[in-house]
Design a protein that fits this description.
With about 475 residues, this protein is an alpha/beta fold. About 40% of the residues lie in helices and about 10% in strands. A five-stranded mixed beta sheet has the order 2-1-3-10-4. The protein has a four-stranded mixed beta sheet with strand order 6-7-5-8. Strands 9-13 form a two-stranded parallel sheet. α17 runs antiparallel to α18. The two termini are about 45 Å apart.
Length: about 475
């Protein structure tokens, strides 16, 4: 009897402990705002400059007046960021807010490992401006196992795929970019460019080639891992994108581009093939992408041509997010800071651009003109971009056009699905090696796809591609039952 009583008590203690360690309820999170706290916010980028200390002081002054908290934004070099944060988390070091994505400090793995705090209750009680600013589908897209661990930056909620064309060469060749709607139209433009400038390789491609034109939903977590759904998603059947007829047809087109000398002969081994900027390049697009892509060092401006309709997939919501560390000592105040970043335009302008008159001036349209060599941060990493000022390099109507773009986008059925790779991690790693071997030579056209792709598919099958797809299908079918 005594043993049974002890066992029951032990079970009750364990259950209580697990509840306390899990996502907090609104009763568990408390905050005394009369007490000043210090918050840290880590994000990747270039090396910090002297200007950042000055702006951090200004940001702290501003935030202290709002929520009685000092804040320090720490920027780590891109190459070091993930390792530094992972080391801090592994050692149990206390820190507050971090930048995370699907590809940098991967949010799914870190959420599942307990690195990030559950945010549902914090959002409900202290993130009302965030909830008001973000589309519910967009916010929910980054949930892991039904729990919100991250908050996406508010910007475009969808994407299209197409090309950017150098405006000076467009004018030189007399090409009407507004008439370019298909890959065949792009091919005609490349033909004209080659005829006008025979020594130019008019199409600039990276090692992945033009595969991003296949606008699938890559539900296995990466566009290089076998497992995709069509944009139309008629049957919810996951397939191997490399075995699709669309991949073969695109590869044949790229091969023709290569043979016609539209693509540099060394494209498969040198990435872009050259530091020169060619006539055309494939790109993920949104309204105003061409304006944002202005190359100030060369003076090149661009015109974009969208080839696909706007679509929202999970990746659109997971490309720039904030998470609160599980070691955060002041989670309520951290959420209050994040809430400010979605509602306070003055705070955002200071964070994005620095001090007016010191780091930037305003033009006659109230747009930011940055001063060379002064403070500047990447606005796409933080908060609600759509309430901050635009720069003089952006379309004054950018946000109105993006709102329309967002409203018209297809919301893919897979939005919010997060693939647990645990059971197929070995197969994913092995397939990644196979893709690395073949992707560039197929995607840039340097080899005949009708000879190369069958060998590619055979190696993928041996590496376990079908096992990955079967596991993804099983998980996806379960996910659909919850929608």
């Amino acid at each position: 009897m005594l043993k049974k009583l002890v066992s029951v008590l032990l079970i009750m203690v364990m259950l209580f402990s697990l509840a306390a360690c899990g996502g907090g309820s609104s009763n568990e999170f408390t905050d005394d705002e009369s007490k000043e706290v210090e918050l840290t916010y880590f994000y990747p980028g270039g090396l910090e400059t002297a200007n950042e200390e000055r702006i951090n002081e200004k940001l702290s002054e501003y935030v202290k007046d709002k929520i009685n908290a000092k804040v320090k934004f720490h920027r780590f070099d891109w190459n070091a960021y993930q390792q530094k944060i992972s080391t801090m988390a592994a050692s149990g070091e206390a820190f507050d807010i971090v930048f995370t994505t699907s590809w940098c400090l991967p949010y799914i793995q870190n959420a599942q490992k307990g690195v990030f705090l559950e945010l549902d209750d914090l959002l409900k009680d202290y993130g009302k401006d965030i909830l008001s600013a973000l589309d519910p589908d967009f916010l929910a897209a980054s949930k892991v196992d039904g729990i919100q661990y991250t908050i996406p930056v508010k910007k475009e909620t969808a994407h299209s795929v197409g090309f950017l064309f150098r405006e000076d060469l467009v004018n030189k060749y007399g090409i009407d970019v507004s008439s370019i709607k298909t890959l065949e139209d792009v091919e005609n433009a490349l033909k004209i460019a080659k005829e006008k400038d025979p020594d130019l390789y008019p199409l600039q491609v990276g090692k992945e080639g033009l595969t991003s034109l296949l606008d699938f939903s890559y539900v296995t977590g990466s566009n290089t891992t076998p497992g995709a759904l069509y944009a139309e998603n008629n049957d919810n059947k996951i397939f191997n994108q490399y075995a699709s007829k669309e991949y073969m047809e695109l590869a044949k087109t790229v091969r023709r581009f290569y043979e016609n000398k539209y693509i540099r002969p060394d494209a498969a081994t040198s990435g872009t093939g050259s530091t020169d900027v060619a006539f055309a390049q494939v790109a993920m697009l949104k309204p105003g992408k061409d304006k944002e892509s202005y190359d100030s060092s060369r003076g090149y401006s661009y015109i974009q041509a969208d080839l696909t309709k706007p679509m929202m997939v999970t990746g659109d919501a997971t490309g720039a997010m904030a998470a609160i560390s599980a070691t955060c000592k002041n989670p309520v105040r951290a959420m209050k800071l994040l809430n400010l970043l979605y509602s306070d335009k003055d705070l955002l302008n200071l964070l994005y651009y620095g001090e007016e008159g010191v780091d930037y001036t305003l033009d006659e349209e109230d747009r930011v003109v940055k001063k060379a060599g002064m403070y500047s941060a990447s606005g796409w990493m933080f908060g609600n971009q759509m309430i901050a000022k635009l720069t003089n390099l952006e379309d004054p109507s950018k946000w109105e056009k993006i709102e329309k773009f967002n409203d018209e986008a297809i919301v893919h059925d897979s939005v919010g699905f997060s693939f647990d790779q645990t059971n197929v991690s070995t197969e994913i790693a092995t397939c990644a090696n196979v893709v690395a071997e073949y992707q560039a030579i197929v995607g840039t056209g340097v080899q005949d796809p009708e000879e190369t792709i069958p060998a590619f598919l055979e190696k993928l099958e041996t590496a376990g591609a079908q096992k990955i797809i079967d596991e993804a299908q099983k998980q996806y079918d379960e996910f659909l039952k919850t929608k």
